[in-house]
Each structure stands twice: as structure tokens, then as C-alpha cells.
UniProtKB/TrEMBL annotation:
Residues 86-112 are annotated as: Disordered. Keywords: Kinase, Membrane, Phosphoprotein, Transferase, Transmembrane, Transmembrane helix, Two-component regulatory system. One of its GO terms (molecular function) is phosphorelay sensor kinase activity. The keyword Transmembrane helix applies. The lineage of its organism: Bacteria, Pseudomonadati, Pseudomonadota, Gammaproteobacteria, Pseudomonadales. This is histidine kinase. It is found in: Membrane.
Amino acid sequence: MRSLFWRVLAAFWLALVLVAGLSLLLGRALNNDAWIIARHPGMQDLAARWTERYEAQGALAAQPLLDENRDQYRVFVQVLDETGRHLSSREPPHPHHRPPPPPPEFGNRPPLPRFPWRQLSQEYTSPSSGQTYLFIYRIPHEELRAWRNDSLLWPLSAMVIALVVLTLFSLLLTVSITRPLNRLRRAVHDLGQTSYQQSSLARLATRRDELGVLARDFNRMGARLQSLIGSQRQLLRDVSHELRSPLARLRIALALAERAGAEERARLWPRLTLECDRLEALIGEILALARLDADPGAARPIDLGELVAHLRNDCALSAPGREIRSELTPGLALSGWPDMLERALDNLLRNALRFSPADRPVEIRTERRGERLLLSVRDHGPGVAEEHLARLGEPFYRAPGQNAAGHGLGLAIARRAAERHNGRLLLANHPDGGFLATLDLPLTTSR
């Protein structure tokens, strides 16, 4: 993965290297002979002015130009023609800068001193006569450095180069970071307006740096939130639909009771009571499903043996005479929320008792597979058609032919409880007949 940290670090050091490299190139360019001759006031246009006066008035008339240039700018100039003949004074620029004579001792001869001046040369061709002249300039190093410092050209040029390069790299780096962040900001805004589309971050999610990881995580979060929002909307629609039926029956029964006589009214009271009980049971299941999304608090150890024994006792009261067999593997440690898991198992048992024949038992078994626990409830009923298995567990969904049994919330509660335990609910037809509902849970469960 290409880390954004290394990209920023590389851009920083690359900018420094480019600034240093361009500064060196600028230094070489500013130290070029042609550039100095074209910019220094002691050499600028001197060749043209000297050649014009020399060809018009002779060498004696042109020599004062060279002398004035030497006195004013400390630049000593010699001029040669095409044959190598000197056309100007050949005296040295400064007598005190003459190199000392070599000592007589050959073996102890010291190294020759460095010339105290910078020598530059320029060829100039007269536009009128076509004659070519060679101008040799000698300027002291101190004078050259003073001219550069006084002109502020070198520091300003270096500063301009540094600012241009650093600004360019900063702009590129800023754009490479702010553009993805702006996309994320727009995606957050769309998510808040429930108009989020995963395609809005598809290109950003292909990046292989931290911003790409963030975009992929945001896509997963957005998809999850959209799914939750959609499921909540569907749940509200289903709740309103399910509540409408018992309320309508209650309204009809009340209307009939108002017009009925005493005997007919006494016959209608059990029907009203039944509809009230159904409505209360439906509201209770809806509240139970909603509580699963609330904060259940800290997880704690779950004693499966005690939990299953408690459920068997409840079923013995609600369904006397029905046989419930349990085969529990001892020593399985499970942590989570006992009330939530008990409600899930209670719904699975009630479904199994509802569809299993009265003379066949309902079986509860546990099985360990690696670090996971399989807690299954099996009945010996007719099972469910394969095409409807995928939708079982959706709120208010009931397979065809079973519409009269319950409200379609029992399996939804069991599935939501399994998910809160970082597990899942597996629903299938048993190979030997009947229906098998399995809670696949991790042995060590954390919220």
C-alpha cells in the first residue's frame, strides 16, 4: 500500500532536492561569461561603442573608453584583432596584483598564487566593416562579488526559485489531499440526506493509500447505514400494516357490540378479548425487536444448561405433554446477554412446538466447531419450501401456508439476537425431515 505519509515525506524531500538543484543551475548560469558580460555595467555594450569609435577615429580616440571603464568599474580590457595584434594598452590592471617572481630555490618553489581577477572573453564583429575583434576583460573577484551582492540578483533569484518550486509542490500535495477530502465531505452530506450512493466514492476507493482505505471503510459504513435505514422504513411499513388488521377487527367487533343485544354482546366479548390479546402480543414482539438494537450493557457469562432448563419449564406450562429433548455438550463457555439469548431460543422453541406433530419431540442440541458454538432447535414438522428459506427471519415475513401462525417476528428476533452476539441464524430443512434452526455463536463473544 502506498502510504500517504511516505508520499508527503517524498514530496517534501523532492522539493528540497529540486530547489537545491535549480539553485546550483542558476548559480552556474549567473556565473556564465556571456551572462556577466551582458549584465555588468563595465562590459555591457562596451564592445560596440569601442568598435564604432575605433573604426571612426582610431585607437588613440578609442582608448579613453577603456581607461574610463577601468577607473570607474575596475574592469581592465584588452582588444585584439583577427591577427592577434593588440589594439589597446597592454599594461596590467593593477601593479600590486602582479604575481611575485618565483624564488631561486627550485625544490622549495611554492604553488603559484591564484589570479586575483576573473578573466572573460568576447568576440565582436563590426556590423559596418565585418572585422572581428577579441575583447579580453579582467575584473577582480572582489569587484565581481560586490556587483552581484549590490544587484541582489543572486539572492532574489534563489528565493524566487525556491518559492516557485515549493509553491508548485505544495499546490500538488494540497490538491491530492483536499480533493479526496472534499469527496468524502460530499459523501457525508449525502449520507445525512439519505441520498448517498457508493459510486460517488468508487474512484477514491481504488487508491492504495490511507484515503483509499478511509473511502472503502466509509463505503461499508454507508452501505450498512443505508441498509439499516431501509430496514427501519420497511419495519415501520410492516408494523403499520400488521397493526391495522387487529385494530380493524376490534373496530368491527365494537360496532357490532353497540347494536347487539345482551346475549349477542356477551358472545362478542371473548372475541374482543382475543383481539386485544393479539394486539398486545404483537406490540410486545415489536418492542422486543426494537430493544435488541438498544444498548444491552456489558456482556456476562451465560450458563447454557440453566438457560435451557428454564425454557423447558416454561414450555411445560404453556404446552403440557409436549416432549423436549436436550443434548448439551458440557464445558462450553459462552459470554453475552442471557435475556437476549433466552428470548431468541424461546421464539425458536415456540415455532418448533407450533409446527411439530404432538407425538414427536422437539430437539435442542449443542455442538462445538472450532471456536464456535452451534445451538440448534429441530422439529419434525413439514419444513419450509427451499425458495422461501432465504427470506425467513425478515420482520413480518411468513412463508405461504403459515400466515395464521404468529406475526413473523419470532425468527427476526432470533436473528437480531444472534447478530448482537457476533453470530448468525442458520435456517434449513433437516435431511431426515422437519425444520432446523441453528444459532452459530462464537464461544467468546464481545459486544
